[in-house]
């Protein structure tokens, strides 16, 4: 009886042994799903929506104030910001409520079918919500953005409508993905908020309801959050994977000088912007990997940091922080937060 090795096509081998498949590529200095370097991020394209004051209806309907879409290699995310009015004053930085939904083939999102959101959706939504609250709480000026103002047509002065506040709901729909989605969902939320135009309001004393003024005479105004207007303060999210890989290393020629030997060397590798199933599996805690998420602004202020895994190598974590800072400075230099980029695309790359 003869024993023959079993050979699998690449796509089958990647599913059967994703960690070994990944290590084979790392030994060649490659990543299995792209030609990116280990510390290189994917190219990101952002498209801003186009909200029109002519389409504004009463606040009880689905009032879309701003939209954005984020596209990358294998990732497509759409974010729309809708407005509502509440009689309860937002406290502790509340007032912006993100909700992440991941579409899964023909069944759509779990919540769209009446089911409970997945753990990944809840973690991503809560993480974005926590960061937004901290950013809003940083300056008292930000809290004024949730007040409703009524403009006097004769004097042109604006007065605050009492006991009425604006709330913003961020609907983040992940249409496709091939890796962690938190970084890209955060970009979609930021760009949609920059696209938001808050309409003008009027209080109807007869019905005791707030009405929205539409038309060219009532163009509304942009959101004036401090963290959106200063490009060096825009928080940029970056994620990394750390794994202990057994890489194949060719030794020098042996004493006979006629052949080389291949040995396995255990090396710790930092992977930026995880992409594909094999990279996700290899950097997961079940395979003795680690995940690092960093959110830092262009002025090197750390907004959030999370670490899950088993590594104790501080050099790897320092490398993640250095890469995140460099990426934030690079993106901050390209983004002009003061401009309104209607229906245009901008490309960001770390």
UniProtKB/TrEMBL annotation:
Keyword Nucleotide-binding included in the entry's annotation? no
- Compartments (UniProt record): Cytoplasm; Nucleus, Nucleolus
Q: Which SUPFAM superfamilies match?
A: Ribosomal protein S5 domain 2-like
Keyword rRNA processing on entry: yes
Record keywords: Cytoplasm, Exosome, Nucleus, RNA-binding, rRNA processing
Q: Where does the Exoribonuclease phosphorolytic domain lie?
A: 40-199
GO BP terms: namely: exonucleolytic trimming to generate mature 3'-end of 5.8S rRNA from tricistronic rRNA transcript (SSU-rRNA, 5.8S rRNA, LSU-rRNA); nuclear mRNA surveillance; nuclear polyadenylation-dependent rRNA catabolic process; rRNA catabolic process; TRAMP-dependent tRNA surveillance pathway; U1 snRNA 3'-end processing; U4 snRNA 3'-end processing; U5 snRNA 3'-end processing
Q: Which InterPro entries match?
A: ExoRNase_PH_dom1 (IPR001247), Exosome_comp_Rrp42_subfam (IPR050590), PNPase/RNase_PH_dom_sf (IPR027408), Ribosomal_Su5_D2-typ_SF (IPR020568)
Q: Which domain of life is it from?
A: Eukaryota
| Record protein name field | Ribosomal RNA-processing protein 43
A single cellular component GO annotation: nucleolus
Q: What's the family?
A: Belongs to the RNase PH family.
Q: Where is the signal peptide?
A: none
GO terms (molecular function) for this protein are: mRNA 3'-UTR AU-rich region binding
């Amino acid at each position: 009886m003869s024993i023959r090795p079993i050979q699998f096509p690449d796509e089958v081998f990647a599913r059967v042994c994703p960690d070994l498949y990944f290590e084979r590529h790392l030994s060649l200095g490659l990543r299995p799903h792209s030609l990116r370097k280990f510390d290189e991020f994917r190219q990101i394209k952002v498209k801003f929506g186009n909200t029109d004051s002519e389409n504004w209806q009463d606040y009880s309907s689905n009032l879309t104030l701003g939209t954005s879409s984020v596209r990358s290699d294998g990732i497509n995310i759409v974010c729309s910001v809708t407005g509502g009015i509440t009689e309860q004053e937002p406290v502790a930085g509340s007032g912006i409520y993100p909700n992440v939904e991941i579409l899964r083939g023909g069944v759509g999102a779990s919540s769209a079918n009446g089911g409970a959101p997945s753990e990944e959706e809840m973690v991503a939504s809560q993480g974005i919500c926590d960061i937004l609250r901290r950013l809003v709480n940083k300056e008292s000026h930000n809290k004024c953005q949730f007040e409703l103002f009524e403009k006097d047509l004769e004097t042109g002065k604006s007065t605050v409508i009492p006991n009425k506040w604006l709330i913003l709901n961020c609907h983040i729909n992940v249409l496709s993905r091939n890796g962690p989605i938190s970084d890209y969902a955060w970009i979609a939320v930021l760009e949609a908020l920059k696209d938001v135009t808050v309409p003008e309001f009027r209080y109807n004393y007869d019905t005791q309801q707030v009405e929205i003024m539409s038309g060219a005479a009532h163009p509304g105004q942009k959101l004036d959050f401090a963290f959106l207007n200063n490009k060096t303060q825009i928080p940029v999210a970056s994620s990394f994977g750390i794994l202990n890989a057994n890489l194949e290393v060719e030794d020098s020629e042996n004493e006979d000088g006629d052949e080389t030997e291949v040995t396995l060397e255990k090396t710790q590798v930092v992977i930026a912007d995880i992409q594909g199933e094999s990279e996700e599996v290899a950097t997961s805690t079940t395979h003795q990997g680690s995940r690092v998420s960093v959110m830092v602004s262009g002025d090197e202020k750390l907004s959030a940091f999370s670490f899950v895994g088993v590594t104790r190598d501080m050099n790897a974590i320092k490398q993640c922080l250095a890469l995140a800072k460099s990426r934030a400075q690079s993106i901050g230099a390209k983004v002009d937060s003061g401009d309104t980029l209607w229906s245009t695309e901008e490309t960001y790359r770390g």
